[in-house]
Records
---
Amino acid sequence: MEIIRCEDLTKIYRSGTSGVHAVDGVSLSFEQGSFTAVTGKSGSGKSTLLHLLSGLDRPTGGRVIYQDNNLFDYNDNQLSVLRRRRFGFVFQAYNLVRELTAQENILLPVMLDGRKADEDYLKRLVEMLGIEDRLGHLPGALSGGQQQRVCIAQALANKPALLFADEPTGNLDGKTGREVLTLMRTVSNELGITMILVTHDLGVAEQADRIIRLEDGRVAEDSAEEKVIG
Amino acid sequence: MKRLTINRVAGANIRINRKAYVSLFIGILTAVFLATATSLCAWGTVRGHEEQMAQRVGWMDMFTLGSDEATDEQLRRCGFFQEIGHVTVAAVVEGKPVCAGYYDGTAERLMNRTLKEGRMPEKAGEIAAEQSALIRLDLEEAKVGDTLTLNMQPVYGVTEEKTFTLTGILNEQTSWLETYYDDDEYMRFPALLVFPEEQFKIGGSVVHRVLTYAPLITFNQVQRNCPVRMNLAFGVSRESGTFVYNDSGWDRAANTLSRILIWVVLGAALMLSACVGITSSMESLLARKTEDIGMLRAIGATKRQIRRVYGAEAWLLAVTALPAGLLPGVLFTRIVSGIAPDQVVFSLNGWLLVPILGLSVLCVFVASRVPLYHASRQMPMGVLRDTALLRKAGNLHSRKAFRPDRLIAGRRTRLHPLRQLGAAGMIALTLLSTLMLGELAMGIQTADDRDIPAFRLYSDGHSWSDDPFSELIPENTTDRAELKQLNAIDGVRQVRSLTEISVNLLMENVPEYFRTRQFSLEDEDGAVSVFSFGALQAIRGDCMDWLFWSGEDAADARARQDEDWQAGENIRQYDRMRAVRETQGISETPVPVVMYITDLDAAELREFVTDGTIDPDRLDSGEQVLVYAPLMGVRKENRSYSSEFFLKPAEVRENEWDMIIRNDVFTAGTALDLMELAGKEEENSLLQAEAADLKALYRQRDAVRARVTVGAVLSGPVRLCDTYMYSFSVITTPKGAEALGLKLPNPEYSNVWLDGDPTPEKEAEIEEKIGQVAMRGWLRTDNQLKLTREYRSKKLRQILLFAGLILLFFTVSVFMQVSGTSRQIRSETRTIGTLRAVGADLKTLVGCYRLPVIVCAAAGLVPCLLFYAVTEIPGLRLFTANHPAVMIPVLVLMAGSIVLACIAGIRSRIAGVTRQSIVDNIREL
């Protein structure tokens, strides 16, 4: 069952009189519970595509349909509610609030929604991520890997329908990167979360159900289509 | 190749990035403009007052009357004086208190005599006169060019009739310089100027000296330390434009400071805002150079070198801004001077460049210090900043349930408590100004409630005497009949006069109510002063201990009189009292009390009656009098004291007062034996004489005895003829005094009330007519309408000033707060992006910055409320007009308005950030 799709999605970055097509007429559909890896060279538009799909950025043209509604018809507040209830994000750089502890950062989306935290779920989550003894520390006191795990826990804290991850292992060493990815995969599978992951690491991409390769902002290769053709 | 210097690097930086430096240049330009305008306006204000005073009393610092005790040579050699001029009194007009004379060159310059019209005398037979002198000579109609015939009497000479041509009318001056030593008509400055060659047949002249001090000399120093003895020497106050007995120079300095305080406060506040502007521009300029500074630090530049490189840019801009800011500052002062030429005189002086440069340099130095310090502390790798945060955080208690905006804001406030200190100080200043404005605004309202007489006429010490037991009847003052003429002036509603005399209350036993009580106060230097209080304070002399003396007390005081000045004074009064008893053949003690004679308004006084009733008929018949027997509380207050007059004993809170003085003697129906001893002024000199002569003096006095009963007793803050009463007094009407056979001097005070508010022309006309009556009798006139107008306009100016200051402080507070938070928002764009990514809306984001604003406003409000509470404690009371029930809500409202304005500003900044996409926010760094 389809959970999200984009139609003719375009993003042009203007520079003086010329424009750069970061994403150029991309149309894709994602199944619920699937794990998709978006790959491509640097500058191929994979991060931009992820940002557009998740509503973090506005497109120059095209639509992103989530639950039969175009994301970009929502106003800012509606998008905020959607982000804290249905979407989760993991960024390459560990975006955490400096003044909040790891635990508070993890709880942030739940608290923003004014809900009570599911303590058992969160306990299991942090145990799976191996950060239970680091919860009372500020981000500055955590290593890169620990911060990234906190980010993943934050993204999964509200049990999202969709998890967007932008090079989540980019700043980690190979072993830690693999561990983190396995964790994300495990949790997503358990909760039936749809995961869209951007990476330029083919080793990482190979773990996905579906691999989309972008080139100059266009889909150059989509393993799902090949399967259909095959 | 040119050598690379820091200035060249800074200059090149500015040339390349001109646009980036515009706001810093404007900030520095504003500072220079404000320094120039403030300095010139303050100087202009000082000059404006000086010129007003020079018009009145010239440029002299001191004068002596009759210069027979020292020679010019002695005065020059003593080193206390710089210039000495001579004023020669050639003659007086016979029978009139007006003298004629001339000046030498120095005196002419120092006296600064100016003309209303016409010219100075240029040959014998010509004369110039002050208008008041012409009035006193009954020549008020005389015009320039008229011939005046005057009976002139030279000093110790023979009167001769002389004819002069009136060549000019002088501006008023001599009346400001009249002293209490002018019983002899020659001991005053000439109000008639004649040509120095004017010949009088027989007689001498008197020469007065006018002097200026050597640098740093004051009148008090001359009095204390000048080796040359001068008997009748008087200082000239540049503050009041009159003569003074005491002038340490501090009053002048303090008054000058208070006069320029407006400019100092306004200038300081505006320059502070310019400083904030410079700091803010520089912070933002240096924020853009973070990477450059990090790079410089990484290649080994020291903190000092960083400060020098970027500090040089500010100084180079200051050098350019200086001439550009000077010119508008000068123009501004010229405009202010054009609007208020009396208050601010436009005057350029090379020395003014010193404060202008000083203030500008100080402003740039102070304002650039903070951003330069921050920039130089930057670590080569910005990420290390979090180490500082972790150090500050210590052990945080991690929350499991929270409101994200409140938690983030609370953490920030906890982790950076001093971030908003400057803004909190500015908010406190805003609130303190609000407090002052409230006091002024409510004060002006209170002052308006009184029915103030339009004109007040008063004599100026012409009946001065040291004797508490007898009354002197001076001549040459305006009598009641003449004052009645004032009633005939069109527009005058009512004229009420007050005569003040000293009478003796003959008492078998002097009541304790009259006993003087004392307490001592220690000043800042530890010196102890003793203050005396009592219900009885005669119009002349101090509180009267000696009334209660036994023979032993008197013998004891007599033994101590050589070393104890007060004992000497008391024994002299005691001897006088004995002389009165002996000469008047009385066994009772004569207690000198003040008696007021005035046209009473019974209805007006009724609220102050504590016993009996006011019966005007029985007062007029001399059968009854009123007594004012005050109920007083006295307490020490802040190294001084304060006193209050109460109506009823129930009003007095005993624990609030150190001393309470109660009337337990006088009630309605109490019989009073009054005795007046009256005489002529010439006998005054006998008062310094020995006991035998004192008896001769009191025998010469006319004694009037009368027995009256007290009709009503008054207490509380009673005003008679717009004069507050301050000690036990007997009160009757002019008819009552006449019925009692009392001999009265002419009224001391007369108040004139008008029908409604006159037009300016009508007021001038009435003032001229009143002035003519007053001047004939040597009375001075205060135009209270004008004084009230001046008072109100001064208060309004102050209110406007404070309102302006509040607006300014309010704006600066909001600006400081918003710009500080904006800087923070700029540096935290990524955090904002992160919060948005996890679903934070605009309200939540604003909430993250709201708490520090509220904390900052509270940090400004709390000290202000504490200060207000402290100043409400009896003894430390500072604000008298405003009321806490009004002021506290106003202060809270003001602090609330600042918070709302700040939050609105912050909201708009955050909205600006959220207009960008989250991706842009996160990519920011």
---
Amino acid sequence: MATTMSDFRVDPVSGLKIHRTANTLVKWNAFAAVVFLLVGGLFGLGVALTRMPSVQLLSPELFYMALTAHGLVNLAVWIIFFEMAALYFLGAHILGSRLATPRFAWAQFWLMLIGAAMVAVAVLQGNSSVMMTSYPPLQAAPHFYLGLILFAVGALIGCFVFLGTLVVAKREKTYTGSLPLVVFGGVVATVIAVFTIVSGALILIPTFLWSIGLISHIDPMMYRVIWWGFGHSSQQINVATHITIWYLIASLVFGAKPMSEKVSRGAFLLYILFLQLGSAHHLLSDPGLTSSWKILNTSYMIYLAVLASMIHGLTVPGSIEVAQRRKGLDTGLFTWLRKAPWGNPVFSGMFLSLVGFGFIGGISGVVMSVEQINMIIHNTAYLPGHFHGTLVAGTTMAFMAVTYYLIPVVFQRKIVLTGVAKLQPYIFSLGAWVFSIALMGAGTLGVQRRHADITFAGQPLAYEYPEIAKGLMDIGEIFGVVMAVGAIMFIAVVLASIFTGERIAEDSAPWPKVEDADVVAERTGKKHIGVWGMEAPGTFVLAMILFVTLVLYYFVNFKYLSTVWGLS
Amino acid sequence: MSESNPNGVNPHFMQKALDNQWLMLALAVLVPLVLYTLWGLWDIINVPPAP
């Protein structure tokens, strides 16, 4: 396909050569994502105010409807629309290439939109409150499953448009050598997405046929195995994407380079090989699966993916520390961090995402994947606590952070409500962190998940939890409201900037660039940085704090297990 | 966003493998398909029927 220079523009903010059609697709996918974040967030607010024992806002019928909508919209629709925008940005914008097959890319957008709308209609009609997992024998309306299938097919098309764009960029020599690390991160997210979507198709197509009466029976155990290949792996796409965004932001804000590209790429390879096997931890209580399958997948293979996460968690802040030290902040252990641009939401959001993901979502995920420990928290409120630590404190915060960069570059608008934007990452993270920790505490005390009333009032199997469990649920849900306020602040900044922000003219003067840390070090003649013979000692200390926390938390849980499950 | 392997340097075979997105795709599908999906389904198929 012939392209002309007018098909591209050189962006004054980033200096990137931007393919206009690709940019339009990034815009529409990102815009749809933010709208769905708003919709899903409102349902989430309803869920939070119902799970709060002292409020119990919604009736059980409305609660299950809201929970289904919140789970699907916020766990799948918002995130996957944003990932499509991220993939087109990485493939076309970063490589300075045209997008392969824009018509297929538009098919991706419309199929996902129509699919999401069909699912939303099915849920709002009230006869598909089957929650995100839609376990048989619970049965939803046929258009619920059909909508999910269309959404997944759209996402699959988007993945191949991205892979095709890489082929185009290589053939047209828009880059030389290997793919830049951040684009390789996009490849990792994409290949994980393909397994995810194929798993979804394998189980949702027969389930759809079951819902219209063409198949008489779906085996619940087989459904769960294949569905979690879809349900959990979809969250691994998020992990790969948000870690890619961490690397991107470190480069954009600090002119940082990875401490070792080989190590970072090796860690991404571990993700490709092992990350998706974590799906097995959802099935640790399932009777039909052998302990060999459970333990090999969760207690062995997944640790290789955890190793990769710890490498990324070390190299991203490490690269920032090295860049800061090369630029002169080379005193003490943490001067580089203390003098980082905490008022810039691109950085603060990214760093809060890194800390929240590592300390809350990451540590809890590792510990709960141990088969024995899993027995004390399986199907409790610990689970939503954990995945709000990964998907909200980690992924969503990272996506929000990079959006503050994308608005000037992609939408060509200056950010408005800058005071709100500066504050937003802190409010959102505070809400997400306390919400996650409080729910994990309540779950450890046995509070079950997915129930409108934790007291089971009026039910034959009523159970009285300790008051501290109710208190933790109240605290958690109060901070769930704080999290929702943070999300609304983000949406307000995005929509106000897109519709009312000052336009950045295409021929305007280039914005000042962040200098590459290596160039600064060369100019100043600075050859040695760091203390104790280490270039990034502060990051080493932070990594050790994370490691000690993980080990302590691991043993505390085993100690707790020994008290609830006594041997005589 | 730096690039590895500047022109004129023959990349390491591992780097060549990582640069092949189709190989990465095959690994990302085959490894979990075998270790997670097929093995899991095999376990379930072999659950003995209730007496």
